[in-house]
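Good morning C.,

I know you're traveling, so I'll keep this short. The sequence:
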Amino acid sequence: MFARLSQLSRHLSRPLPNYAHKSAAASRIAFGSGSMTSLAEERSKRMIHTAGCIIIGDEVLGGKTVDTNSAYLAKFCFSLGMNLKRIEVIADDEGEIVEAVRRMSENYDFVVTSGGIGPTHDDITYESIAKAFGLKLKLHEDALRRMKALSKPHPSQPNFSYDEPSPALEAKLRMIRLPIDETRDEKSQALFVDEKLWVPINVVNGNIHILPGVPRLFTQLLDGLKPLLLPRLTDPEGKGIYRLLFSTPLAESAVAGYLTELAARVEPKGVKVGSYPRWGKAMNTVTLVGKDKEFMESLIPEVEKNVNGTKIDKEDEVEEGSEEDKES
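The tokens, ready to paste straight into the viewer:
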């Protein structure tokens, strides 16, 4: 919580971005076909240091669906040494999708979207992202071939046929009409990373990876993408990022002063200090996250003393305790 408050304070102190003030003409220039193609090629090959995530869906904002995909992506990025900088949840709204993907594509090396690529009218992610970068939707023939081979007819559609026009067929085809830049290699824009799935990962503008919102498919496809990302990672095994955990019986308010001083002292070394309450438990958790393992380990005795705690390997080791919420 301490880390989150510090991040919020820094965020609020920054000047507002200026992308909202760009004119339509400026946007057309920025996303002209020639410049977009060259930038997309560069983005598709650059080393990956930062990542962003866009969760798309009215059902998430309305509380009907609980988002687990961003949490899975966060662990995925941490394990590979990628710095996940931002997670946003936005509506099934064309304007919001266009603005978010343009901004994140510009700001981060690796961007993942989740949701909005199903067969119904409110699944507008593909068409919105196509509009964002001046692309047309194209029926992807390889995806259609895989869909025919791997997708079983639903029991409610016993007479469905790929050879006869129907609303059901149109709904299925909606899921494989992808934003494609025809000036670039199509194979690099539709990645089939799992032979058991017909669903491709559509890659737009070189760094936006469009994934389904269904958690099972999201995790399966993300895991399948990993081998393609490894050559572009500076720390593919996540060995360059370390997280130390400390269990403390003290309330957050009791350690806040020390942690504030510690955070300011270790920030020049690239180390972040975090404090996390464990409601209903006897112990809270303090964390150190950074790349300088030797320096971080040198802090262990000091941190243990000042938080009256113990270094642990995982939070499951924290003593199960009081049923009452601890002071924060």
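Safe travels,
E.
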